[in-house]
Amino acid sequence: MKFGGTSMAGTERIRRVANIVRKQAAGGNEVAVVVSAMAGETDRLVNFCREANALYDPAEYDVVVSSGEQVTSGLLALTLQSLGCKARSWLGWQLPVKTIEAHAKARVETIDAPEMLAGLEAGEIAVVPGFQGVSVEGRITTMGRGGSDTSAVAVAAAVRADRCDIYTDVDGVYTTDPRIVAKARKLKAVTYEEMLELASVGAKVLQTRSVGLAMKEGVRIQVLSSFVGDDAIAADELPGTLIVSDEEMDEMVEKGQMERQLVTGIAHDKNEAKIILTRVPDKPGAVAHIFEPLAEASINVDMIIQNVGRDKGETDVTFTVPQADLARAQALLEDRRDDIGFNRIITDSQIAKISVVGVGMKSHAGVASNMFRALSDRGINIQAISTSEIKVSVLIDEDETELAVRVLHTAYGLDAVDEPV
Ligand code: ADP
Ligand code: ASP
Ligand code: MG
């Protein structure tokens, strides 16, 4: 079981979480619980680091930001004990959750937790702080924002859990962020592949890496709400959204439990920034000069467009990077202005990426053209396009994000039908 920040925000909510955990354990289950820091806490800790030293050392940053989860894991263990349950916390270094050394964006390597397993068998509930691990050097690491989801999947894989229930503040995965589109529909199931794509293009309900790990390790995930009353449907009856394999999805469709849709979901991402380099020489090696220094600095480039060469063998190159890396990217490119040979750098952070995702695209044409038509009908200009086998993404003006998501949600027939009164 994993509980996110909103579910853990304050003693009152932790008590509710403890009750959900107690019920699950009382049903004869061995339970490991992964918890996030209280909502807002990690942001607060990140700000402290920035104030202390703008160019902070990621290893010390990890010491600071991992603390939020230490607090909530101890509090949940205490609350469970107060309800008469046997429970104890297992910090990342105690379990241990071994990760690679990349501070602030570590990846789990192994969780080998014989002691915790023995405790589980003896009926003790294990409470594990999410987000944190320990490097080979023995220093605390964290796994990137939203990383508690990945901790939960890693623990589930390590203990060979029947299921990894991710409890959050919505009752499942929807066709789009239900906080933006009131007519978003809850999905009974989503395939790993689609969820991976949705998460990576901005549906932050699950951290992308957690879905990749679950797919690799065959962990069954259910996303469900912790904000439920005592009479709620039990988690074992699967009230939330299941993340399933293609085969399982096919079975569900055959049994009439799921309808096959061309587009499964729509996501948006406002955290990218656009860079245009004008008048780059149109010759072999030119783009390598641009992207090599960015790769060396671990800056992820997402969409790339190289315009058709214009006069005098020159071309404009447009691409996007995470907003947080924009200043660094710009400085690196300015440094190499002579090597690259561009004329001007133009940057824009007021952009958003809107993506439609669905495995149905593999076998059906027209998804992209429907998208372009629907957006143009509302006067929304497309600045860049990228596609994968199961996704089409466009870059638009940030101010038009909500409108674009709503328009596309309707265009692909995803709107929930109002219940008859
Ligand atoms: P937690 O703190 O529990 O990890 P998050 O805030 O990380 O919760 O993720 C839950 C949020 O994800 C929801 O409140 C919702 O606004 C957002 N979200 C974005 N896209 C979707 C989607 N397709 N389905 C459900 N929730 C979504
Ligand atoms: N507390 C961390 C964050 O806010 C990890 C998590 O909640 O998943 O990013
Ligand atoms: Mg989250």
Question: What is the gist of this entry?
Answer:
With 421 residues, this protein is α/β, with parallel strands linked by helices. It is built from 14 helices and 20 strands.
Structure description:
The chain has 14 helices and 20 strands. The protein is of the alpha/beta class. It has 2 domains: 2-260, Carbamate kinase (3-Layer(aba) Sandwich), CATH 3.40.1160.10; 261-421, VC0802-like (2-Layer Sandwich), CATH 3.30.2130.10. The strands form 5 sheets. It has an 8-stranded mixed β-sheet, with helices on both faces. A 4-stranded antiparallel β-sheet has the order 13-18-20-19, with helices on both faces. The chain is globular. The two termini are 36 Å apart. The model has no long low-confidence stretch (mean pLDDT 95). The structure holds adenosine-5'-diphosphate, aspartic acid and magnesium ion. Aspartic acid is lined by residues 4-5, 36-37, 42, 68, 130-131, 145-149.
